[in-house]
Amino acid sequence: MDELWELVEPRAGLWSRKRDAYAIAAAFNKAGQLSSKHGADPSSCHRVYGALAAAYLPLVERLRAPADCTIPLHACAKAGYWGGDLATALVRRLSAGGGALLATAKDHEHSNLWWSLSEALKSAEGRQVLSSIDLPRLLEASAASLLRSTDIQAQVVSNILLACARLELSNQALTHHLTAALATAAPMAGRQALANSLYALGELAEDVGHTPRPEDVRGLARDIASRLTLSAHATSLAHREDFKPQELANMLLGCAKLGYTDPGLLSPLAAAAGNAAARMNPQEISNSLYSLALLPPSFSEHGPAVGALARAGLRTRFSEYISQNISNAAWALAKMGYVDQTWYTGAVKAAERPEVMRGAVPQAWSNVWYALALVRHQPASGRLLERTAEAAGELRQGAKAQECANLLWALANLRLYDERLVEALAGRLGELLGQGSEHFTGQQLCNCLWALAVMGPDVLSRHSGLVEGLLREAERRWAVEGSVAFSEEDMVQLWQVQLELAHVGGGELQRILLGAGEGREGSLLGAAQDAAGRVATDEVRASDMERQVTTALERLATRSSPRKIESIQVGFLVPELCRVADVVVELAGGRRVVVEVDGPWHFLANRPKDAAAMDGSTELRNRQLGRVFGEVHSIPFWDWIFKGQPEQEEVLCRVLGL
Fold this sequence. Notes:
There is one protein chain. This protein is mainly α. The protein has 4 domains: 1-149, no CATH class; 152-271, no CATH class; 441-538, no CATH class; 544-656, Trna Endonuclease, Chain: A, domain 1. The protein contains 33 helices and 4 strands. The chain has helices at 2-17, 21-35, 42-56, 66-79, 86-99, 107-120, 124-131, 135-147, 154-167, 172-185, 191-208, 214-232, 245-258, 263-275, 282-293, 298-315, 323-335, 341-352, 354-357, 362-374, 383-390, 392-398, 401-413, 419-435, 442-455, 457-462, 464-481, 488-504, 508-515, 524-538, 544-559, 616-629, 645-656, and strands at 565-574, 579-587, 592-598, 631-636. A 4-stranded mixed beta sheet has the order 1-2-3-4, with helices on both faces. Helix 24 (419-435) runs parallel beside helix 27. It comes from Edaphochlamys debaryana. InterPro entries: FAST_kinase (IPR050870).
């Protein structure tokens, strides 16, 4: 850049006086190439751009060739140079006469224009340049010229599609024309153009609702799949032309946003991403995992790729990961059923580092905890919970209902509690309720209520104001929408909340659900009770382990003398709870004991063989059964499986106190 300055500094004024637009544009082009190189000195770049801008500005009004505008504009965009009034003058010149100058522009000149305009969005100065013109009219003029073009190169297509996505432009005629042109140009296209085009179509689908024609997407997918297959079967590295890691990640993201699930592309694409995992940066890894999580069947079909991507982060101890990378990767892996607790242990340790979650948005905190709850991973230390509580202010100010609900649900399931955090989430939820019911889905309402109930009677009482607000909104929805307002799972949660309110003496809170909707479809409480009863009836079917426990109890009952076991009731429906107890054993003297036969899903996965490590749902079950029967004992799966009859009977004797 210094050498260019030595050339430009003594000549720029002369070029301007001679109106030598070609020389200045050529210098701009060279400056654009040099400024995009790694390590370019910003001060040297701006010195060169300043001199060229000052020399070119007086010429702009009389420019007649589109390239004389697009070349310097493209160079300015590359360097992020939007000052000095030149960029504004250039876009105004291109906009003059309704964009008349663009009627004769070549395809690559249109491409440079679109790319430059989309780059302007990245800075305040650039956005000010865009605000100085009628941007939609300029883009429409360019689009009209492009629609007359019949031989558009793939790189031009990808650049303009990317710009459309960044500018959130919905021009169906143009995007269809471009994707059709891509089908023709694809066999000779570079890999970057193919990857960027697929990614851009996904962005357009998500941001502006554009739906590309299926035949165009299939054609693009076939070309990409062909390149992936050829690369995978290359006999030597010299003959391989791999997509770059970023391109693979972007293509997966494009497929996810398009909802494109054809295994003809997804299988080789996922495999290539897995093979490239060690060369991916944190953003590319998290984007790839996030995309795979949105593309069913994600884990069953793409398991090797998922495992490779997960291990790539773990191998580096999540070095250079930021909050978005950690949270998206954790959410994606948990949603795909990836249960390797070592990965989550490493992710938690990374998230506990102050620099990783610094500045994290509410969604990042929510996703991390939601993922941990899905895989039943309770952090070994309290540092992550402490870090989250330190962000209570940000959560209180900016969290959405979904984020609050997921965080509360996760804390409840993991049996964790921090009053600062719960207070902030409750306050935010109350504020959102006051702003309008549209902030909440029925599921979110019920998850919040259920989470507070799981956390215990004291928490329900402490946040009675929020509980009342949530119940009132549930009541309103039931009155307006009836049974479509809530799913069966939501209704079961409401019933369990009602049981907890009854225990703490909820008074008016108890009566809210009872009165909701009387005269239309019955009370909301009645419907919730019915739903809980139906679910409980379905749960009566005993598992193999439950049948083994029952058989062992019957052997003990037969052998005991005097008789210590009076009766054994399997799959006992508790009417007042609308809940099934696995086994109710009545002992001599009238003592009744509930025996719950608990498999792995009742316990926190990273605390093996710890009977106290029940999840929140199981703890709530035991609490409610205990109020009816007095005694509830759990037989964890590790105390039963792979043991002989004498050992199993010994477990039962210990549990029952025989």
